[in-house]
Amino acid sequence: MKHLELKAKQEYLAFNEQDLIIIDKVQDLPENSTYYTEHVLVIICTAGKMQVEYDGKCITIQEGDLFLSVPGSVLSDYMVSPKFDCKLLAIRPSELMSSRETHTQVINSMLYVKTNPVVRLTESDSQDVFAYYSLICSRIRQTAGRYQNGEMRSLINAFLLKVIGIIDNEMNVPETEASVRGDQLVEKFVWMVNEDCGRNRLVEYYADRLNITPKYLSTIVRSSLNRTPTDVIKVVTMKEIERRLRYTGDSIKQISQAMNFPNTSFFGKYFKQHSGVTPNSYRKKYHK
User: Fold this and answer.
1) pLDDT digit string (tens) for 44-88?
2) Which among 16, 13, 18 is positioned nearest to 3, based on CA atoms?
3) 79 close to 30: Cβ distance less than 8 angstroms
């Protein structure tokens, strides 16, 4: 499996090494390749159509669509129409949390796009997204000035807020008045779960690390994300297991041990409970 990288034929802009990478015109995308993304990936389709497997799910991106993927996602089996083109932005995950305002929205949106990565842009949203995009590109091309770093981070943050707002509208999420303290704890919880990749699955474990009770953790997660801590842990755990089954040669026993299951039998029951199939059956679908 390859890490997502730029090809020589692709002209791109970069800010602060790889905090932000922009490909203004995509050509000669390699088909039938598998990539592991370390950035937040935003693709705005401007022409044609693209089909790609995103974490094992086949999706289609067409003109007027915005595609958003989270770090740690796997993209494979590209197929594009002859006239396909898009704008592509790869944003380092740390940029997502550069503003206090984005924390709760980011957490909820990132969980949502794990299973719903494509959004149809309205005419108004499309105009706003391209306005931010053009301004970011223009500022990168200019000679670096005293305040360029601050300007760029503000522009990136504004672009992300716009994208997250579009996702929130798609989710039809009402505004909440969660406390700053609660938001901070939910943020820490979600990023700890992602960092662990599902190796720790007890709510009590994370509550203890956060120095709060499991009941309080459940309350603030429900308030901010409209789901339980167990739901968050399950999404991340299943995604990591599926990635290992599809893209590594590790045995079921090795995966079970790596994911801290007590034994392969318990591992198999857990996976089947949440996917409907056994680990071996899931793997065989992709390794015929």
Assistant:
1) 999 999 998 887 789 999 999 999 987 777 888 888 888 888 999
2) 18
3) no
- C-alpha dihedral (114, 118, 123, 124), degrees to nearest 10: 10
Is the whole model's pTM more than 0.70, yes or no?
Answer: no
Q: What is the pLDDT of residues 113-125, one digit of tens each?
A: 877 899 999 999 9
Share of the chain above pLDDT 70, in %: 81
Stretch 202-212: mean pLDDT: 95
Please report the domains of the chain, with CATH numbers, ordered by start residue.
2-171 (2.60.120.280), 180-286 (1.10.10.60)
Tell me which residue of 272, 259, 228 sits closest to 111, measured CA to CA. 228
Q: What does each C-alpha distance from 125 to 11, 13, 21, 134 come to in angstroms?
A: 26, 23, 22, 14
Which pairs with CB-CB distance under 8 Å and at least 24 residues apart come from 269-273? 271/238, 271/241
Our CA angle for 252, 117, 237, nearest 5°, is 25
Instruction: Give me the half-sphere count of Cα atoms (radius 13 Å) on the Cβ side of residue 272.
Output: 11
Q: Which residue, among 22, 103, 116, 17, has the nearest Cα to 67 in the 3D structure? A: 116
The whole-angstrom separation of Cα 192 and Cα 185 is 10
**Pairwise CA distance, residues 237 & 169, whole Å:** 27
The residue written with tokens 């992300």 in the block is 160
CA 94 to chain centre: 13
